[in-house]
Specification:
The protein folds into 2 domains: 7-160 and 244-284, 5'-nuclease (Rossmann fold), CATH 3.40.50; 168-242, Orthogonal Bundle (DNA polymerase, domain 1), CATH 1.10.150. It is 46% helix and 9% strand. It contains 14 helices and 6 strands. The chain has a 6-stranded mixed sheet. Helix 1 crosses helix 2 (36-52) and helix 8 packs across helix 9. The radius of gyration is 21 Å and the shape is globular. The termini are far apart.
Length: 289
């Protein structure tokens, strides 16, 4: 008889903040404070806790715009618009909400949330645990393995190794090679000019890896082969930029992520402050505490 593995749920907080913000518009508290991202994020958190009942959980956030990738490529993410002011106001309340649920919130200056997620996921594997990453970020497909899966709660879709093959045409270990060629406009990773998604997948299916492709670029006919020769160094840089750092120097123990009961008093106060009357009723079974 096989025993089901313990599972850690890692919530990609930064990804869901933006998704919540754009999914719900023009919501505010009784005092006029914007709450659309806060409400959507809280609903997502409640859904995961209710539907999945995790024994271990943590929320991971970005800690600012500047990371080690900007040192390698100053234009990294440079095309992104500044965070909307009404969203920026909600970041700290979102973190307060996470803390009120007694869920650890992690961030580390110089690294992205993806790097922290990758580091913890790999440690889970090493300790014989499974890891579910709650995210809508395709970049994280590179860390998928038999023990690490992605869950998009907004689309109700899970991504394992088979789903990564379906989307990228290669295994998780080659996702960064696809991104190195194709680029990633959202992160301002240029890739190789003239090579899009379809061509990137086809080339990697034929040659097996970016290194092998670049070593044999002379075998690729036409403009594509010329561009591979001309932009080989850029492709390697793009791969580095797209690669999640799974060795982030962050201090934690998996035991720190064991679920504990939420702080009902703090949650009630936050729900009242921001006008989340329905959530308050669910928490207290009464409109008043």
């Amino acid at each position: 008889m096989t025993t089901e593995k313990e599972t850690l749920y890692l919530l990609d907080g930064s990804s869901y903040i933006y998704r919540a913000y754009f999914a719900i518009r023009h919501l505010s508290s009784p005092k006029g404070f914007p709450t659309n991202a806060l409400y959507g994020f809280t609903q997502m958190l409640l859904k995961v806790m209710k539907d999945r009942a995790p024994a271990h959980v943590a929320v991971i956030f970005d800690a600012g715009k500047i990371t080690f990738r900007n040192e390698l490529f100053p234009a990294y993410k440079a095309t992104r618009s500044s965070m909307p002011e009404d969203l920026a106001q909600q970041i700290e309340p979102i973190k307060q909400m996470v803390r009120a649920f007694n869920i650890p919130a992690l961030e580390l200056p110089g690294f992205e949330a993806d790097d922290i997620i990758g580091t913890i996921a790999r440690k889970c594997e090493a300790q014989g645990m499974a890891c579910v990453v709650v995210t809508g970020d395709k970049d994280l497909m590179q860390i998928v393995s038999p023990d690490v899966t992605l869950l998009d709660t907004m689309k109700e879709k899970s991504f394992g190794v088979a789903e990564v093959y379906e989307k990228f045409g290669v295994g998780p270990e080659r996702v960064v090679d696809v991104l190195a060629l194709w680029g990633d406009a959202s992160d301002n990773i240029p890739g190789v000019p003239g090579i899009g998604e379809v061509t990137a997948k086809k080339l990697l299916q034929e040659f097996g890896s970016l290194d092998e492709l670049l070593a044999r670029a002379g075998e690729v006919k036409g403009k594509t082969g010329e561009r591979l020769l001309e932009f080989a160094d850029q492709a390697r840089l793009c791969r580095t930029l797209a690669t999640i750092d799974c060795a982030v120097p962050i201090d934690y123990s998996i035991d720190d992520f064991a679920v504990s009961p939420p702080d009902s008093r703090r949650l009630s106060a936050l729900f009242r402050e921001y006008g989340f009357s329905t959530l308050l009723k669910d928490l207290t079974s009464s409109p008043t505490l």
